[in-house]
Amino acid sequence: HNNKKEPLHQRKLITIIMSTLYAPYSCMDDSRQEIARVIAQKISSAFSIMGSSYILKLVWGKWRKKKSSIDPYQRIMVGLSIFDIVYSFFYWFLGTWMTPAETGWWGAVGNTKTCSVQGFFFWIGSGT
């Protein structure tokens, strides 16, 4: 196994080839930026889903003990948490996975039907 770095001219050549093949489909200037953005949005959406799920767990536990103890604020939080879970999962977590593969985006493996489903949940989630 050779631990030497690639020569500068080889790295530049690889960058030029990748940007030529990838740039027409990318939303970012650099494919590394797009990959970092996609990974960051999946991680942050997972945290959002966990946080909203925790809110649901807390309110559910209180509701099971005494139904009349749930105040309007907690009911509102349950509604917002449900929408956040659905929106974060379908739009942010699944993200590029639901995008048609023909787009060439990093991680795109979907088709037009999965894209339409994602668009529906984006539209629904935008109302919250």
- How is the biggest beta sheet arranged? none
Give the uncertain stretches in residue-range form: none
Q: Approximately how much beta-strand content do the residues carry?
A: under 5%
Given helix and strand content, the structural type is mainly alpha
The amount of helix comes to 55-70%
Explain this structure to me?
It is built from four helices and no strands. The chain is mostly helical. Helix 2 runs antiparallel to helix 3 (72-93). The longest helix has 35 residues, at 31-65. The model has no long low-confidence stretch (mean pLDDT 79).
Which key phrases capture this entry?
single chain; 128 residues; mainly alpha; 4 helices; elongated
SSE map:
Layout: H1 8-22, H2 31-65, H3 72-93, H4 112-125
Helix pairs in contact: 2-3, 3-4
Short description:
The protein is an all-alpha fold.
